[in-house]
Amino acid sequence: EPRSPWCCLAWTLVIGTMNSLVFLLNLLLMFVIFTIVLLPTIVVVYFGFQCHSQVLHSSARYCKSILDDNSSSALIILGFVIMSPLLVVAMAIYCSLARRLRLLVCFQPYSLAVYKGGRCCGEGAPCCARGCNTQLKAWV
C-alpha cells in the first residue's frame, strides 16, 4: 500500500540518513584499516623524504649521522615497493570485515519509503529490507 506524500518524504529522509550513516561507517572502517596496515610504508617514506637533501633536508641528528642521500633514496623506494602488497592486505581485511559484519546489506532501498510494509531478514541479519532474501550474499 503506497504511503501518503508527507509520510513518503519523511521516510525518504530517514532512509537517506540511515544509508549515509552506513556509508560513513564503511568509510571510517576502511580509513582505520588502511591507516593501520599502511603505517610501515608511511613511516619509511616519511623518514626517506625528511632526510633527503633535495627534499626537506632535516637537521635532525639521525639524518646527519645515519641517513645520507643514498639511504634516504633507498627508504623512499622501499616504502613505495612495499606499498602494493600492503594495499592488497588492507583491502582483503576490509572486505573480510565488511562481509562478516554484513555492512553492505545494511543499505536500504528507497522503495521502503514509498510503500508500507516490509519485513526484517532473519538469521541474525542486522538490517531490515523489504522482501529481502536470506540467501543474499554481498560477494559470490
Automatic annotation (TrEMBL):
InterPro entries: TMEM88. GO terms for cellular component: plasma membrane. The keyword Disulfide bond does not apply. It is a multi-pass membrane protein. GO terms for molecular function: PDZ domain binding. The chain crosses the membrane at residues 21-49, 74-94. Its main location: membrane. Keywords: Membrane, Transmembrane, Transmembrane helix. The keyword Transmembrane helix applies. It is found in: Membrane. Belongs to the TMEM88 family. This is TMM88 protein. It comes from Vireo altiloquus. The lineage of its organism: Eukaryota, Metazoa, Chordata, Craniata, Vertebrata.
